[in-house]
Amino acid sequence: MIELEGIHQTYRGPQGPVHALRGIDLQVARGEVFGVIGRSGAGKSSLVRTINLLNRPTQGRVTVAGRELTALDARGLREARRGIGMVFQHFNLLSSRTVFGNVALPLELEGLDVAAIRARVGPLLELVGLSGLADRYPAQISGGQKQRVGIARALASRPQVLLSDEATSALDPETTRAILALLRQINRELQLTVVLITHQMQVIKQVAHRVAVLEAGEVVEQGETLQVFSRPAHPMTRSLLDDVVPRELPAHVLERVRALLAPTGGHGGASLLRLVFAGADGDRPLLSDLVRRFGLDLNIVHGQIDEVQGLPFGSLAVLARGAQAQLQAAIGHLRAAGVQVQEIAHA
Ligand SMILES: Nc1ncnc2c1ncn2[C@@H]1O[C@H](COP(=O)(O)OP(=O)(O)OP(=O)(O)O)[C@@H](O)[C@H]1O
């Protein structure tokens, strides 16, 4: 649905050229929610804005729904852009227009008559849950409601693609969840292709089918969200994932574990293991396997279980005691079952 080929974006900065995008190749399939994540300055806004040529890349080709946008003239581009809606971090609503008036604006610009506009805007306001607020002004509604207006406006021209430029960054966590759920609902019900950029893995976790990680203008990793979450390959991905599943144990937990790891005078060993599991692994009785099959004593010292795309995802720190050979066999068993195992400490 969306194809970016060899995209470079160079700005003229006060201290010389800024290479914001350095050779991006990306493909987004029809009907998917594709997330782009990166730290501030990574080039996310530049990237999402090349998809509708709000930013014309210095080099490279942009194709959306089979049309090469970078080859169109101004008129062709205007028309193609109707197929691409966009929502913004700060909503970009006109304060002098009501909720209805804001959603109606792109339709007025398209030249639709009053009856046609009413017929289009009513269902859109219902879709985003704002039917009762049509006559309010932006100053009279909450941030989450403003973003709902932004989404309805973006959908007014019946686009095939929706771009979201940090749409939830100005919202509190609960409103963020509600807006993301709405985006996901729209993606499903309207079979809309969604590209969203964010600096928060929480956002990716909740809605994106696939994700690309951007660093210094380059895609350093991409893949299915669950795959990237469970087996992050690049240090930047791991660092971004720390916000969701911290890799380091909190200091007070480590201290407690050290005391537990102190030699007890027995014959066996003890290992502090960090287990990361994703997807269906979470449904298997792996911990009872360790006890039953390998005769280990287990002590869960820390953990976090979450969901990615409705599938279990999480990490556990487990203190395992038992015979050395059995400990090693148990680690092999877990790895064979697709669980990532890291031995944090050993005694
Ligand atoms: N119009 C511009 N002129 C000059 N430099 C720019 C311009 N727009 C962006 N940049 C620079 O390009 C780089 C990428 O910026 P961009 O806004 O795309 O990143 P971002 O990942 O969206 O960051 P943020 O999350 O902080 O918005 C940054 O170094 C930024 O300073």
TrEMBL record:
Could you confirm whether the keyword ATP-binding appears in this record? yes
Q: Which domain of life is it from?
A: Bacteria
Q: Tell me which Pfam families the record gives.
A: ABC_tran, NIL
SMART domains with a match to the protein in the record: AAA (SM00382), NIL (SM00930)
Residue ranges that the Swiss-Prot or TrEMBL entry lists as coiled coil: none
Entries under InterPro entries matching the protein: AAA+_ATPase (IPR003593), ABC_transporter-like_ATP-bd (IPR003439), ABC_transporter-like_CS (IPR017871), ACT-like_dom_sf (IPR045865), MetN_ABC (IPR041701), MetN_ABC_transporter-like (IPR050086), NIL_domain (IPR018449), P-loop_NTPase (IPR027417)
Q: Does the keyword Transmembrane apply?
A: no
Concerning SUPFAM superfamilies, the annotation shows: ACT-like, P-loop containing nucleoside triphosphate hydrolases
Keywords from the named record: Amino-acid transport, ATP-binding, Cell membrane, Membrane, Nucleotide-binding, Translocase, Transport
* GO molecular function annotation: ATP binding; ATP hydrolysis activity
A single Gene Ontology biological process assigned to it is: amino acid transport
Q: ABC transporter domain: which residues? A: 2-241
PANTHER family listed in its UniProt record: AMINO ACID IMPORT ATP-BINDING PROTEIN (PTHR43166), METHIONINE IMPORT ATP-BINDING PROTEIN METN (PTHR43166:SF30)
- What's the protein called, per UniProt? Methionine ABC transporter ATP-binding protein
